[in-house]
Write a structure and sequence with these properties.
This protein is α+β, with helices and mostly antiparallel strands. It folds into three domains: 75 residues, wza like fold; 77 residues, Outer membrane lipoprotein wza fold like (Roll); 107 residues, Outer membrane lipoprotein wza fold like, CATH 3.10.560.10. 21% of the residues lie in helices and 27% in strands. It has a six-stranded mixed beta sheet. A hairpin with a 5-residue loop joins strand 6 and strand 7. The chain is rod-shaped. The termini are far apart.
Length: 294
């Protein structure tokens, strides 16, 4: 019986030291100006509310100053325990640290959102909520987002999927003081005799777009168009390079669909202006004035 009880106690002890399944590790770090609440168990006279200095340390009532910046509250508690032990203040110090107030209580959202600005948050917040505060993405936004962590400047990437379930399940958390960067997506253009000529952002889940997909998004070619004389204009360091595009054969399935690159231009000529199809420079000049679509 004694052996069974001993085994049970050891098993319970081992289980209690395991992390809780699905528990999210603490990631919000202490920074200069934060107001901390330091509690030393069984020693109430050492309890204090103290603000982190610009140098990143806090002065303890006993034990001197300790550096706590870029640490979680749990890590800061361990540092304080070590200071109290090394200073011979307590034999077995047990410290708890909580953040009463974060000095940096806002997140910065910049780039392709409808209202880039500073937004106040007090706790780690889902990036989806942060984007909602900023009015959502613009039509030209890339779905590959970047979170620049406060203090450590760790770069955390997040892909905002078109699938709502995937977007919420994979959402990262943004901490007070972080910066969310929403870059501009690559743009491809289609000009000439199509329903909706203009620029279209490459911002779907696959992060690419083909010739047929672009033509479809532009509403298709008009009856007066000459797709057999279409041109593909690719931007290079030297300017625009115009090459024939077998759009008619691609539409008929006689030629494989082609994947486009950012800043590529498709020009579909009008039946009565076939000579323009060979003028790549004039086509490239009109790209700047094209409307941009989602």
């Amino acid at each position: 019986m004694l052996k069974q009880i001993l085994c049970f106690v050891l098993l319970a002890s081992a289980v209690s030291t395991q992390p809780v399944l699905g528990q999210k590790p603490e990631s919000l770090l202490i920074g200069p100006g934060d107001l901390l609440h330091v509690t030393v168990f069984d020693t109430p006279e050492l309890e204090q509310h103290v603000r982190v200095t610009d140098a990143g340390s806090i002065p303890l009532l006993m034990g001197g100053g300790v550096s706590v910046t870029n640490r979680t509250p749990a890590e800061a508690a361990k540092v304080i325990e070590a200071a109290l032990l090394e200073g011979h203040i307590l034999l077995r110090p047990k410290v708890s640290v909580t953040v009463d107030q974060y000095e940096t209580q806002s997140v910065t959202v910049i780039g392709e959102v409808k209202d880039p600005s500073f937004y106040r948050i007090n706790t780690p917040t889902s990036i989806i909520e942060i984007l909602a505060m900023a009015g959502g993405l613009t039509d030209a936004a890339d779905r590959k987002l970047l979170v620049d962590r406060r203090g450590t400047h760790e770069k955390v990437t997040y892909f905002l999927s078109n699938d709502a379930t995937v977007a919420t399940e994979t959402a990262v958390y943004v901490n007070p003081g972080d910066t969310v960067v929403v870059p501009k997506a690559g743009i491809v253009y289609i000009l000439g005799d199509v329903t909706r000529p203009g620029g279209y952002a490459i911002n779907d889940n696959e992060d690419n777009i083909s010739v047929l997909e672009l033509v479809a998004r532009a509403g298709g070619t008009a009856h007066s168009a000459v797709p057999s004389h279409a041109r593909l204009i690719h931007k290079t360091e030297q300017g625009y390079l115009s090459t024939p595009l077998p759009l008619s054969d691609i539409q008929k399935g006689k030629h494989a669909d082609l994947e486009l690159q950012a800043n590529d231009v498709i020009y579909v000529p009008y039946s009565y202006l076939r000579n323009i199809a060979n003028n790549g420079s004039s086509i490239g000049a009109s790209v700047a004035g094209a409307a941009v679509y989602r």
